[in-house]
């Protein structure tokens, strides 16, 4: 358990090097690893479209449970296509060994049903209109700490979003498969260096129905190949496309960013680039006002 704490702290501190932030993360992990999650008895499991059944916790060796609150953009937080791809991977690799539960405290039930039908999400969603799950457990307010890997006794084995952080996804899979859990060759990995044309993209004011596009340029200024392992976004409204080929020293790779608002809003989103560069991950931002 102590080893898992160290590994999780390492992954989260990659995102922020601030000492006070690291201390807060360490305290949070100490509080939650090994803690029992309490499930409410009055929630409803809603399947695709209109079918509903009373809530019942799955009887599998592991359960991945994620709490999604009503703050902000529901579609951005859900990222159902990414969840579905991950769940399909889980069930293919570890059939019958792990289940997933997405607990939602929706601000607008009709909007949620629309999103479920639009994305054709085929796995159960737990609707918690009274926010009972959160009231019983008092989850952290930071979205990246609202997903947990539980054992069969509902004890927390690991914390973090496998949807937003590929290292957390890898950690979950390793634990579930019984593989050796290590911090992936941090000291031995061949690293290079990158420079960026910009770290923040300002779209300004625009009609919320209009798609916005721009590009970040990453240049390999080191002496080794630049390899991008993954690129994640904090919002389903943001998509990033890029070449998966290794980048030679002196060459560049373009990250093509597309932002499509679901409704008028001021936005400040992050894009996280995981690569073999110092420092990694590379954090980028896009901001603007969709009116």
Automatic annotation (TrEMBL):
InterPro entries: DUF1573, Ig-like_fold, Thioredoxin-like_sf. Pfam families: DUF1573. This is DUF1573 domain-containing protein. It comes from Bacteroides cellulosilyticus.
